[in-house]
Amino acid sequence: MNKVFLLIVTLLALSSVALAQSEMAHARTDVFGSSSCMGCHGTSAMGGLGPPLAQTKLTEEEFVKTVRKGKGMMPPTPEAMLSDQDLRTAYAEVKSKPWDDTQIPLAYRVGSMLSTKVVARIFMVAGILSLLLSLWVLRYWVKLANLGKLRPALKRFGVGKAAFVFIRSLFVDGLFVASLWRTNRFRWAMHGLILYGFLGLGLADILMQINDPTRAKLPMDHPIKVFAVICGASVISGVFYVMFRYKTDKYVDNGVTLGRDFLFVNLLLHSIFSGFLTLTLSRTGAFTWVMPVYIYHLLTVLTLIVSMPFTRMNHIFVVPVMAGLTAVTDAIVKSGVEIAFDREPSPGRHHKSVAIAESVLKQVDPESAGEFRLRYYP
Amino acid sequence: MARYAMLIDLTRCIGCDACTVACKQENGTPLDTFFARVLNIETGKYPHVKRLYVPVLCNHCEDAPCLKACPNKAIFRRQDGIVLLDQERCRGTGACVSACPYGNIILHRDEEDWYLNEDEPYERDFVKPRIREGVARKCTYCAHRVDEGLKPACVVACPTTARIFGDTEDPESEISEYIEAERHRGRETFKLLPEAGTKPGGMYLGPMSDQEVSTLGGRAEVEVFIPDDSVPYTEWDHVKEASK
To answer: Could you give the 3-state DSSP secondary structure of residue A101?
Structure first.
């Protein structure tokens, strides 16, 4: 935790230095240097957060249009901030700057590869990979529930009806977290901060993509941006509560899942925090730091997604599915199609007992393993 | 550190359900809640039928899936291998119920039916503080007894001593010596559903097929396995005498 804070404090300190430097440069020597262009395109116009402009191949008209309308992350600059005349001077300046490969900053070299399309592709591949890995992990869990032995009862109960029970449970027990709602509203709210905040961030991302496929920078008061910021703040406050519980909870270590817990919570913290830091840096004008922090943000989100099936984050699909299966077996038992119990306090106990009986008979009496029945006495 | 486990010798089990009842009494479980139960397995067709009793209880697995499935960290594994479920932390999500391949976690969300009337001291003071309503519960290997140096209730109650409980990491313990002695006789322990990969602590020793005891089929004489003399088992002496 301390290291995280140290990192953040250092980054903030450095960003304020960068901010001071950019202000000092306002001692009007030339238009390019005195305007905010330099912040992104570098002091020698060899690029920074934005591309190099020295020896630019753009025509003057294209150049003016780009500055006025904005492009990608570049904000539009109105005439009030930069007159047409100054703009033309700036064009002449950058056109005459010498090209110097050694001046291209590393962040731009990496950043220039991260076009919206490339980032979207990387995340699409990561998402599909994560989904496949999740399904692979889920196989282990579904096997434990031993659905094979339940199949005949499932058929009698009705597959459609079972699917309805399962999906209802996914929403009620999974999305709404009914068990926490029933037992502890405070914990439900804290869990909700993370859960719904995270879902909101995903939704905001999709909305941004629909709103503008090139993902130009949105103004801070844009509804989608406001929504995303609220969701991010919600997740981060939830994560801080979890961190606090790690300090106070004597059950933090159950002997098995501690490492996976920490990995999940820390990855979540780093990705959301670096997201906020990117936002803050780009709004305060510390452009030099935006790209490295943004790349770190992308990397942590990517790690979070790909490692999801193996960190404790897998509870987002394991718990709803297992609780759903419990709901289905419970419904089957209560309907009385499996075996005529009045009630079954451990849903699925009968078909699991059948599996145990089969396993034992294979060990001790292989001949009769195929044909047996469990006898219950009232 | 200790690793507590239970060995159930199926040759000895007579299916009397004394363990089931002892468990219910010790833990005061409400109606239909069984931590320990006995499976009655019937095989074959009349007249060649057999019955096999398999007592089952929580296996206190080394790689317990219930523990990994719990989103509230309510299930944990003690240093001595006993897997416990903290009822105060449990929110009754129900993920562990499906995760247990043995069906030994009980979650009953409806109102419980207790055996005694309200305000009976036994249930009020002894049982209800430990067995909460609406949350999951499971066998504890009678951890409260084990901590005081006693054996679990089901072990004490078994009239044929089919259940042997102890520390498998201690070669001097009763369970380790029993396993060793039976290994000399050619009987290896086995575990339930090994393919589930849970590494259960509970072990079983195979029954009938070794001895072919089928008195119900009309064969009166019982083949008795004469144990190796090198194994110190005084209980067998009278059998050896009788078979001479």
So the answer is: helix
Q: What backbone torsions phi and psi does residue A244 show, to the nearest 5 degrees?
A: -65, -40
Specify the number of domains making up chain B: 1
Report chain A residues whose CB lies below 8 A from the CB of B39: 353, 356-357, 374
CA angle at B118 for the pair B114 and B121, rounded to the nearest 5°: 95
Residue B135's domain comprises 4-243
DSSP A142-169: HHHTTHHHHHHHHHHH-HHHHHHHHHHH
- Reply yes or no on whether the pLDDT at B243 is more than 90: no
β-pairing, B75-77 with B83-85?
A: antiparallel
Inspect the interface and report whether the beta carbons of A374 and B134 lie closer than 8 Å: no
Helix spans in chain A (H): 2-24, 31-34, 37-41, 60-69, 84-96, 106-113, 116-144, 147-157, 159-169, 178-183, 185-211, 223-248, 258-284, 287-307, 315-335, 349-364
Q: What is the pLDDT of residues A249-264, one digit of tens each?
A: 877 788 788 899 999 9
Please give the single-letter amino acid code of residue A179: S
Residue A11 has pLDDT above 60, yes or no: no
Residue whose C-alpha is closest to residue A289's, from A5, A17, A6, A51:
A17
pTM value?
Answer: 0.80
Residue ranges of alpha helices (H) inside A253-286 are 258-284
pLDDT, position A24: 44
Sign of CA dihedral A192, A198, A201, A203: negative
Q: B136 by DSSP, 3-state: which? A: strand
A146–chain B nearest CA distance, Å: 7
Please check whether residue A268 is in contact with residue A235, taking contact to mean a CB–CB distance below 8 angstroms: yes
Domains of chain A, start order? 28-105 (1.10.760.10), 114-318 (1.20.950)
Q: Are A183 and A362 in contact (CB under 8 A)?
A: no
Residues of B in contact with A354 (CB under 8 A): none
Q: Are B99 and A319 in contact (CB under 8 A)?
A: no
- Our CA-based measurement puts residue B225 at a distance from the nearest CA of chain A, in whole angstroms, of 17
Which residue spans within chain A are E strands per DSSP?
Answer: 372-375
- ipTM value > 0.95: no
Look at residue B125 and tell me whether its pLDDT is greater than 90. Answer: no
